[in-house]
Amino acid sequence: MNPRVKFIIISFVLLTTATATSYAQKLHLGLTAGANLYKITGRSFEEKTKSGFSAGAFGEYSFNRLLGVQGELIWSQLRGKTNDQFNQIYGTYGGVSGADVYLNYISLPLMVAFKPTPELSILVGPQYSYLVNQTSGLLQAPGYQDKDAFKKGETSLVFGGQLNLGKMRIGARYTVGLTNLNGINSSDEWKYHGFHFSLGYRLK
Questions:
Q1: DSSP-derived secondary structure for 72-95
Q2: Residue 109 in contact with residue 127, Cβ under 8 Å?
């Protein structure tokens, strides 16, 4: 083999290996689980905070000592309850008042991480959620019994903080829903907001 070609190949392999190693050192993956304390707002719901469960995985990538990004893929539960006005507002659809509501989302928050110290991350960014399943039977009028009351897609803004204690991650953040969740009509606007608390463990 031509010495020059051999030198180029060896140089390329070494550069690729060094780049991959550097990238791997900056990327960390882990598992997370926690609790949601959310409430659904709007004239149709009891505006009471209810607890839900969340679990999934996270990834962290550091650009430098102070700045990075953190993404998560989590299963997230949101609970609520329709109030007396639900039947009044959606009487045409046979709306059921006093019904417990369970919404299960797959959520993808993508946050900028600012680290004033290695032990603390300040997080802020958007979150997109897809509604996997929801409580059925909220609408009982003929022709509407199979209609979903909630929209499938939802976008939120999340911000908060996280303690980085070795491989442990202890996080708390606030979620502000930006999307009207009402999938019936536009007579009432439904949004959710509240706190998300999590405990994570870095695998690598």
A1: EEEEEEEEEEB-HHHHHHTGGGTB
A2: yes
Q: 169-200, pLDDT tens digit by residue?
A: 999 999 999 999 999 998 899 999 999 999 99
**Global pTM?**
0.83
**Which tokens belong to 72?**
């998560």
Handedness of CA 44, 46, 47, 51 (dihedral sign): negative
What DSSP assignment string belongs to 20-33?
HHHHHHHEEEEEEE
What span, in angstroms and rounded, lies between the C-alpha atoms of 182 and 190?
6
What's the N-to-C CA distance of the chain in angstroms?
40
- At the topology level, CATH places domain 27-202 in Porin (2.40.160)
Fill in the amino acid letter for 63: F
Q: What is the pLDDT of residues 60-96, one digit of tens each?
A: 999 998 999 999 999 999 999 999 999 999 988 999 9
Residue written as tokens 């930006």?
Answer: 178
40 - beta bridge partners? 192
**64 exposed, middle or buried (CB, 10 Å; 0-12, 13-18, 19+)?**
exposed
